[in-house]
Amino acid sequence: MSAIPKTWITPQEYLAKERQASFRSEYYRGEMFAMAGARYEHNRVKDNLSLELRSRLKQGRCFPLTSDMRVHIPATSLYTYPDVVVVCGQTEFLDAERDVLLNPQVILEVLSEPTEKYDRGAKFPQYQQLPSLREYILMAQDQPRIERYVRQPNNDWLLTNFIGMDAQLTIPSLVISIPLQQIYEGIDWSQPPTAREA
């Protein structure tokens, strides 16, 4: 992500600009950060996952939303766009525009080279400030590997890894499981990286 502009702006100014913009930007500590486009593998994992979540959560009290849903962490001032979020029960929004979500229960991010350090480092501690958040899930796009962090009663986060196409991602707070075979369906890792990125 690259900062645009370098001048400090308020959250209110950010929202006014963002609601009129033709592209998405995150906001943190007075700066807007333009979001880059994603590779095929990133989008395929995200879309596969969203489809599987919708299927398993259909007609229940929980539902997934994809990366057009802006999330705000009031404790840190971050406005961001997770790849997928799951909300359970009543949705809570920042204001009447209903375009800034405050209470995701599960956040899922697909890792990519430009954002992996951010998703693992600076962003995760901020997500932990959301009282509603129960699970944080990181999905690789270059291999079948998923890391799931679950909030414990003492507010520690327990890590579990799911590796290989025979594994199943379990999401305890939603009482569901999804085979990695389905999450990574349609991705051919046998192609050279240059061919996959073309």
Description:
- The protein has six helices and 14 strands.
- By secondary structure, the chain is an alpha+beta fold.
- The protein starts with a strand and ends with a helix.
- The protein has helices at residues 11-18, 40-57, 116-120, 123-127, 180-183, 193-197; strands spanning 2-3, 25-28, 31-34, 62-66, 70-73, 78-80, 84-88, 100-101, 106-110, 135-139, 145-151, 157-163, 168-171, 176-179.
- The protein is globular.
- The chain is 23% helix and 31% strand.
Short description:
With 198 residues, this protein is of the alpha+beta class. 23% of the residues lie in helices and 31% in strands. The strands form four sheets. Strands 4-7-9-10-11-12 form a six-stranded mixed β-sheet. Strands 1-3-2 form a three-stranded antiparallel β-sheet, covered by helices on one side. Strands 6-5-8 form a three-stranded mixed β-sheet, with no helix packed on it.
Quick one: overall form?
globular
End-to-end separation in angstroms reads 21 Å
Beta-strand residue percentage:
25-35%
Radius of gyration: 17 Å
Proportion in helices = 10-25%
Number of strands: 14
**How many alpha or pi helices?**
6
List the strand order in the largest sheet.
Answer: 4-7-9-10-11-12
Largest sheet: 6 strands, mixed
Mean pLDDT: 90
- Low-pLDDT regions: none
Helix/strand-derived category reads alpha+beta
| N-to-C SSE string, H for helix and E for strand | EHEEHEEEEEEHHEEEEEHH
